[in-house]
Design goal:
The protein has 181 residues and is of the alpha/beta class. 25% of the residues lie in helices and 38% in strands. It has one domain (5-174): ATPase, nucleotide binding domain (Nucleotidyltransferase, domain 5). The protein has helices spanning 37-52, 71-88, 97-102, 162-167; strands spanning 5-10, 15-22, 25-32, 59-65, 91-95, 111-117, 122-131, 134-145, 154-156, 173-174. A six-stranded mixed beta sheet has the order 3-2-1-4-5-10. β6 and β7 (122-131) form a beta hairpin. The longest helix is centred in the middle third of the chain and has 18 residues, at 71-88.
C-alpha cells in the first residue's frame, strides 16, 4: 500500500481541525467541540479516512498545529499525532495554529493578525504578511490585551484550517514545539 496521505490536526482552539490530503485530493473537517477534542478526534479521523477511501496505514506525514492555545488542548493533538506517527512510521511537522487560521485570508503585501480568545480579556495573536507567496511573521505569537489590539487587519477566533496546514507544509519545521503563552 502506498503511504501517500498527509494528516493535519489542530486542537489549540475550541475547534477540532482535522484533514487528510494527497495533492489536490482530500477532505478537511472543522468541528466546534469546546473541550471535548479527545472524545471526537479518533471518531472523526475514521470518518475522514472512510470518506477519502484510505486506510490509516497510508498516512506518511502529519502536520500538527502547535498553538498557541490551552495547555490541555495543545497536548491532545500533539500526543495523538505523535502516537500515530510512531505507530505508522510517519514524518511529523509542526506549524503555528495562528498561521493556519490566517492562511486562507492572507493577501500579498497586507498584514493580518489572527487572534484566538484566551482568558481575562486576553488574546493570543501574531501578525503575518504574505510576501512572494511566502508567509512572513511580522510580529511573533504573544498575549495581547483587548485594549492593545490593532484597529484593522484582525481575524478573530477563526479556527485553524486543515487544508492550510497541508498547504503550509513547505514552510513547516520537522518535529513539534508547542507554544504555551
Amino acid at each position: 500500500m502506498d503511504k501517500v496521505w498527509t494528516l493535519t490536526l489542530d486542537t489549540a482552539t475550541p475547534y477540532l481541525s482535522l484533514g487528510l490530503f494527497r495533492g489536490e485530493a482530500g477532505l478537511g473537517r472543522v468541528v466546534r467541540v469546546e473541550r471535548r477534542h479527545e472524545e471526537v478526534l479518533f471518531k472523526l479521523l475514521e470518518e475522514v479516512l472512510r470518506e477519502v477511501g484510505a486506510r490509516r496505514e497510508a498516512i506518511s506525514t502529519l502536520v500538527l498545529g502547535e498553538g498557541p492555545g490551552s495547555y490541555t488542548g495543545l497536548r491532545i493533538a500533539l500526543a495523538a499525532g505523535l502516537g500515530l506517527a510512531q505507530a505508522l512510521g510517519a514524518r511529523v511537522y509542526g506549524m503555528s495554529s495562528l498561521l493556519a487560521a490566517a492562511w486562507p485570508f492572507l493577501e500579498e503585501g497586507k498584514s493580518l493578525t489572527p487572534l484566538f480568545t484566551a482568558r481575562n480579556r486576553l488574546y493570543y495573536g501574531a501578525t503575518y504578511v504574505l510576501e512572494g507567496g511566502r508567509p512572513r511573521e511580522a510580529l511573533p505569537p504573544r498575549k495581547v490585551r483587548a485594549e492593545e489590539l490593532p484597529r484593522e487587519g484582525l481575524l478573530l477566533d477563526a479556527p485553524p484550517d486543515p487544508r492550510a496546514l497541508y498547504e503550509l507544509l513547505p514552510f513547516a519545521h520537522k518535529g513539534v514545539e508547542p507554544l504555551y503563552l
